[in-house]
Amino acid sequence: MHTPLTSLLQIQHPILLAPMGSVSGGALAAAVSGAGGLGMIGAGYGDADWLRRELATAGDARIGVGFITWALAQQPDLLELALAHGPAAVMFSFGDCRPFLVQVRAAGAKAICQVQTVADACRAADAGADVIVAQGTEAGGHGAERGTFALVPAVVDAVSPLPVVAAGGVADGRGLAAALLLGASGVLVGTRFFATEEALGHPAAKQAIVDAAGDDTVRTRVFDIVRGYPWPAPYTGRALRNRFLAAWHGREDELEHAVEAERARYWQAAAEGDVDTAVVFAGDAVDCIDAIEPAASVVQRLAAEAERLLKGASDLVG
């Protein structure tokens, strides 16, 4: 498959690894890139030592780095650290990417901006983004309200001819094929790559994703409250239901008053891999995930399935 995205980023398959904080480390990013996609390290909330270590783990692999934009604004030196590694691309999500684009382009990297609305897509395009990621609410982790199926073509129409990447609800070749038919040039995949051998994260979290169904996910603020991360509106996190979520979802005001006592218990559970308490961010497409696999196998299967489906689509027209 050849799309504007594969040409721009010089990749074989139109598949990008979502830069999931604490999950998309150097080994996973390198594996995705090695299989023909573009892997991206997730810088998360900004730990310079962690980012430096994961960049070193990626070695000479051609990768990108992704930032939570509002968190990066508080630690702009992290962008310099990433750019010193010579990434192929830098991705910005959840905030105004415009203050950082000149620096990225001056370093010779491509600027990828993830948005959740058409208006934000237009602002990022006008600011000089090279790629727009249209993220639907089906995505695991943080996002907003619009669905992928409707958002993607609207963004494609609004920012053409810029390449648009679909995110949210893509975990197999059917999702990739559908995204391309909606006008996207590729997909950004998160949860499917969480359940891979190279992903960071506790084995219990990976197995929870394999065992879950889409009905087991919900958008919520409770995990941000207990962890002390001040996510701005309108962003919430899609996660698997567990006992902690059942206790506090819908009681966010009460949780904020009890947070000091709950926080210590929460972080202990996270360290122990207790997924009945600790968050496992995951998207609606967990129904399509039934095994923990090497990341390269996931890339190759998604690409092969999508190619087969797209070639066969002509049989529907007679």
Could you characterize the architecture of this molecule?
With 318 residues, the protein is of the alpha/beta class. The protein has two domains: 4-200 and 289-316, Alpha-Beta Barrel (TIM Barrel); 203-272, no CATH class. Helices cover 45% and strands 15% of the residues. The chain has helices at residues 4-9, 26-34, 48-58, 69-72, 77-84, 98-106, 118-127, 148-159, 173-181, 191-194, 203-211, 222-227, 243-248, 252-272, 295-312; strands at residues 15-17, 40-42, 64-68, 89-93, 110-115, 131-135, 141-143, 164-167, 186-189, 217-220, 236-240. It has an eight-stranded parallel beta sheet. α9 (173-181) links the parallel β8 and β9. α2 (26-34) runs parallel beside α3, α7 (118-127) packs parallel to α8 and α9 packs across α15. The mean pLDDT is 97.
SSE order and pairing:
Elements: H1 4-9, E1 15-17, H2 26-34, E2 40-42, H3 48-58, E3 64-68, H4 69-72, H5 77-84, E4 89-93, H6 98-106, E5 110-115, H7 118-127, E6 131-135, E7 141-143, H8 148-159, E8 164-167, H9 173-181, E9 186-189, H10 191-194, H11 203-211, E10 217-220, H12 222-227, E11 236-240, H13 243-248, H14 252-272, H15 295-312
Parallel strand pairs: 1-9, 2-3, 3-4, 4-5, 5-6, 6-8, 8-9
Antiparallel strand pairs: 7-11, 10-11
